[in-house]
């Protein structure tokens, strides 16, 4: 997947928005790697935000512990170990996944700042929906009434980011029973649907785009 040079947009406010619908995890992972490499080779290329959903899949962070898997051996779900930090998590339809590919030299060269900014985007999205989200000291992600509704796991290399966040909008949460999500045994996973019955990903996607643009100070341009 090769993108043209967008010379007319080459400033710190530019971000390419890629809204891909439902994409297999391995395909999106490969696309991220290519987009990151292009930006290593061409630092003038604009930042990117990919928004999508995945078919059911489990992913392990690069240092994730296998003890957090509960698979019974009778089934072999799709499982990938990837470059991001963090423990095991689960993706499925109804969960909005965001992969920002940002050059942090244009923003702030600080990984803790970046994680907190991603949390801030999600907290603002919840606020727009009338839901009070919270951070938990010492952990990464967003919670509502003690339930983790958003997970974050990133990889940053040469200040270019990949991987990102997963917001549980209206997924089937049963898949999380096969793991200890994010390695946290004492905090259940939740979804926005538990607080706003009938909510759909399409409603949330536009809010994520608006709040991401505000928090990171970018102006989105469409894919062409």
From TrEMBL:
SUPFAM superfamilies tied to this protein: Class II aaRS and biotin synthetases (SSF55681)
Top-level lineage group: Bacteria
Domain BPL/LPL catalytic: 43-220
Marked site (Lowers pKa of active site Cys) residue numbers: 148
PROSITE patterns assigned to the protein according to its UniProt record, in alphabetical order: BPL_LPL_CATALYTIC, LIPB
Pathway(s) per entry: Protein modification; protein lipoylation via endogenous pathway; protein N(6)-(lipoyl)lysine from octanoyl-[acyl-carrier-protein]: step 1/2
Enzyme Commission number(s) of this protein: 2.3.1.181
Entry's family note: Belongs to the LipB family.
The protein's role, per its UniProt record: Catalyzes the transfer of endogenously produced octanoic acid from octanoyl-acyl-carrier-protein onto the lipoyl domains of lipoate-dependent enzymes. Lipoyl-ACP can also act as a substrate although octanoyl-ACP is likely to be the physiological substrate.
Name listed for the protein in its UniProt record: Octanoyltransferase
Classification lineage: Bacteria, Bacillati, Cyanobacteriota, Cyanophyceae, Oscillatoriophycideae
Gene (name only): lipB
